[in-house]
Amino acid sequence: MEITLDISNNFNSVINFDSFLGQGERIARPTIFFDEPFGFDENFGFELSNFGLNVEDEMMGDFVKKSPHFNDIIDVDVPHYMQKGILVFGKARITVKKLKGLYLRLSGHNGSDESDLYFQCHEMLNKGDVLYEVGGQSAFSPHYTKGILVADRTAQATLRFLSTEYILIDSCDEDANKYYSLRQTPHSYLANNPRLDVISHFTKNPAKMFDFEYRSNRFDYRYDNDFRGMVAKRDEYMG
Known about the structure:
Strand content: 35-45%
Distance between the termini: 43 Å
Number of domains: 1
Largest sheet: 5 strands, mixed, barrel
Shape: globular
Helix content: 10-25%
Number of helices: 6
Radius of gyration: 18 Å
Order of helices and strands: EHEEEEEEHHEEEEEEEHHHEEE
């Protein structure tokens, strides 16, 4: 059974790709898959596997509608100071409609900024535009991919995954990390045949949105009942 969740207003607070930790160790190693052909589109989609999903209260109605396929999420009790969480080990589909800007960075093996490759496409930033972040091991080359997506204030972001491709996270189980590691989809790429159609779009020119100060000057963090994430402060031409 497939479930579709609307994550337009809480994308950054529920998609856990870079700080999914357990007992002091990283237990998830996300992998990101780009569509073919690669390129900027206002209806942008990609796949992500091996990532954490923080299950917020407002999501529960969607899981209840799919009962009994997600009953473990519905029925599990967690302490009031904790949040329900799952590890999605299958390929989940993330789609962002009304995308306005796309920034990607491929980080090389040696950890040097000089080896990083960038892609950026963004013409106009408007007050109220939202910023989403995502990342994971590249499925097409030996890089770690970090993505910044800038979308219209009325953008719709959705997440789809199967009931057979996730497991509950139990933070109280000391042996859980070993189990999570075994359940992850192994990361692999075609080492001798990287997707040149993707890599050819990247250059060594740093994408400005990855500069923390630059980004902070243009976006504020907002956290309320209607939205949790980064929102643009003003209009600005980005071309």
